[in-house]
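Saturday, quiet lab. Running sequence design on the structure tokens for the scaffold JK sent over.
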């Protein structure tokens, strides 16, 4: 464990102990806190649902800290930690609180967080996922923690490789002979076989208007 990160892990252990006693009657065993750079979403912490650490004869769960958010305010750290502690509690109780690969948080997750420092507004696609600190939790934080207690460590994000944007292709087809062409620009091409206008693919076409357009073109060609 890096000496530079020790204060960060000590902070999370202190926060965990405090809220474990306050909201969970010390029922949650201390997890192993690690930093994790593999998260693809905005979770500031994440909980691994297996005992993957062995310390002497003790086995523990893991709680990862997203390295993209090491420098966030202490209230945000606590909000994310309380969210994961609720998942931890439900796991130990054998309660399934998510579905759709963890994205949708169900009514059992809601039941656990009520009265345990979090509030949530239900969203159709995520359920009760987007949690915020309750007023009671904010008062506790003001009383027992200060921003000076926070540990801010910034990790520079690696630059993403520049990928050339693919040029959009416009595809057209003839409604008569079904021939197709692809162009780099939006145009008004006509079929070399039928001498009729082509229509853009994946766009709804009013066939009557298309016929009128073709008849108008045919009349112009006879002038």
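Result came back. Writing it out in full:
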């Amino acid at each position: 464990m890096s000496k530079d990160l020790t204060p960060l892990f000590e902070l999370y252990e202190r926060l965990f102990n405090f809220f474990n006693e306050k909201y969970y009657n010390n029922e949650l065993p201390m997890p192993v806190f690690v930093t994790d750079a593999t998260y693809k979403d905005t979770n500031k912490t994440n909980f691994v649902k297996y005992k993957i650490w062995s310390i002497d004869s003790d086995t523990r769960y893991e709680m990862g800290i997203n390295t993209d958010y090491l420098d966030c305010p202490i209230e945000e750290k606590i909000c994310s930690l309380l969210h994961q502690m609720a998942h931890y509690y439900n796991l130990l109780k054998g309660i399934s609180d998510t579905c759709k690969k963890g994205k949708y948080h169900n009514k059992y997750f809601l039941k656990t967080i009520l009265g345990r420092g979090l509030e949530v507004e239900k969203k159709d696609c995520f359920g009760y996922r987007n949690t915020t600190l309750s007023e009671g939790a904010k008062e506790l934080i003001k009383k027992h923690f200060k921003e000076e207690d926070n540990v801010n460590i910034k990790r520079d994000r690696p630059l993403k490789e520049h990928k050339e944007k693919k040029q959009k292709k416009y595809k057209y087809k003839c409604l008569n002979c079904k021939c197709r062409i692809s162009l780099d620009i939006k145009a008004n091409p006509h079929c070399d076989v039928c001498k009729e206008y082509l229509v853009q693919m994946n766009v709804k076409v009013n066939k009557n208007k298309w016929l009128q357009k073709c008849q108008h073109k045919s009349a112009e060609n006879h002038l």
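Notes for JK: The first strand starts at residue 32 and ends at 36. The radius of gyration is 29 Å. Ask whether to fix the surface positions before the next round.
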